[in-house]
Amino acid sequence: MKSAGPNATLVEDDLAGAIRELKAERAGEIEVAGPALARSLTELGLIDEYRIYLHPVVLGHGK
């Protein structure tokens, strides 16, 4: 990946440093999407609170 869209940052090397810097600069929530990133941040001890959102999907034919 060469670039990130608006309101996004591309981190290539120091994930822990980038997240610590982001947490120091901003108050409030930082949203994380994707299980690989969430796992990395968990292993680094950088997640303070988990909020899990579910999007239920109903499959099949209605009557």
Automatic annotation (TrEMBL):
It holds the Pfam family RibD_C. One of its GO terms (molecular function) is dihydrofolate reductase activity. The keyword Lipid biosynthesis does not apply. InterPro entries: DHFR-like_dom_sf, RibDG_C. Keywords: Oxidoreductase. Its EC number is 1.5.1.3. Residues 14-62 form the Bacterial bifunctional deaminase-reductase C-terminal domain. GO terms for biological process: riboflavin biosynthetic process. The keyword Oxidoreductase applies. This is Dihydrofolate reductase. The lineage of its organism: Bacteria, Bacillati, Chloroflexota, Chloroflexia, environmental samples.
